[in-house]
Design goal:
Blueprint: H1 4-11, H2 14-18, E1 22-25, E2 54-57, E3 63-67, E4 71-78, E5 95-99, E6 106-111, E7 118-121, H3 124-129, H4 131-134, E8 145-151, H5 152-155, H6 158-161, H7 166-176, E9 180-186, E10 196-198, E11 205-207, H8 213-226, H9 232-250, E12 274-283, E13 288-296
Length: about 300
């Protein structure tokens, strides 16, 4: 059920209101898509009937979503994935939830500690100061992944990167255990670039895989400004119109008519649609890549 409007209608039905519990697979506004990004285009909490257990799949981070003032009595429990599937899940506590079968309340949580683990560090110093590292590496196992984002000034520091440095010793220790260690250079940690940004709230770098679509677009355009490919005036217009199009594609129910992309079908039809890659054009090999997307209505 891809239409938020149809899903909201089901949630407000007599059957949903009379049920003992709801089990859904939903994008809910305010839910955490990962540790960094909050969903803003999902179904509103107010659409759910109050005062009943609600369990959801979809997002991999285990957490609860509620808004006591705007949606009293509504609380949605994202159970999360049973094991880490990507770097964006690093450090999350996974587990199984046991429910009793009358009122469907939780009676037990069973921690799960299986599969490949991901570890992320925003500097050499944080990598060395981590409790996991100082414990002698016993928390790591073969197949785990460690990603260290290192500012260029640290890479140039012999104390961190020399063959006899503590940093190099720890990296070698992990690789000997069969851990995959990735060291990523961040040349300008206080600016957007094509690989990472720095969030003002934490001061930590955010990798492109953890950005929202709007952040990826903004990071790319701002990196093009630094290269001299765009002027700031052109970039402002591109970001404005680009983020508007992304919002419309993510949430077509609230989209404004944009003829160039044919995002909306007739007002009397289902407004959801698919984006299909029709053609790829390569210009100036390795330098520029243009993707042409054709928006098709469901009819």
């Amino acid at each position: 059920m891809r239409s938020p409007q149809r899903f909201s209608e089901v949630l407000q039905s007599r059957e949903a209101k009379q049920s003992n519990a709801l089990f859904v697979h939903a994008d809910v506004s305010g839910a955490l898509m990962n540790d960094q990004i909050v969903s803003s285009h999902g179904v509103n909490l107010s659409a759910f009937p109050p005062n009943k257990p609600i369990y959801s799949g979809h997002f991999h981070k285990p957490h609860n979503v509620s808004a006591p003032l705007s949606s009293p009595g509504v609380s949605i429990w994202y159970l999360g994935s049973p094991y880490e599937t990507s770097l964006s899940e690093a450090g999350q506590n996974k587990g199984l939830v046991v429910l009793e079968s009358t009122q469907w309340s939780c009676i037990e949580k069973i921690p799960i500690d299986i599969g490949r683990k991901h570890f992320r560090y925003s500097s050499c110093q944080r990598f060395l100061e981590s409790d996991v590292i100082t414990s002698g590496g016993s928390s790591f196992k073969a197949g785990d992944r460690v990603v260290i984002t290192v500012p260029r000034n640290e890479i140039l520091c012999e104390g961190f990167t020399g063959q006899n440095s503590l940093f190099a010793s720890k990296v070698k220790q992990l690789r000997t255990l069969g851990v995959k260690v990735e060291i990523r250079e961040m040349t300008k940690p206080n600016l957007f670039d094509s690989k990472s940004i720095v969030r003002k709230s934490t001061g930590d770098p955010v990798l492109v895989e953890d950005m929202s679509p709007n952040e990826v677009l903004s990071a790319y355009i701002l990196s093009e400004i630094k290269k001299g490919h765009f002027s700031e005036g052109v970039a402002d217009d591109l970001i404005k119109h680009g983020t508007s199009l992304l919002d419309d594609l993510v949430n077509p129910e609230s989209a404004i008519n944009v003829p160039a992309c044919n995002i909306l079908a007739d007002d009397n039809t289902d407004k959801s649609s698919d984006i299909i890659l029709e053609k790829v054009t390569i210009e100036g090999y390795v330098c520029k890549l243009f993707l042409i997307f054709i928006q098709r209505s469901p009819n």
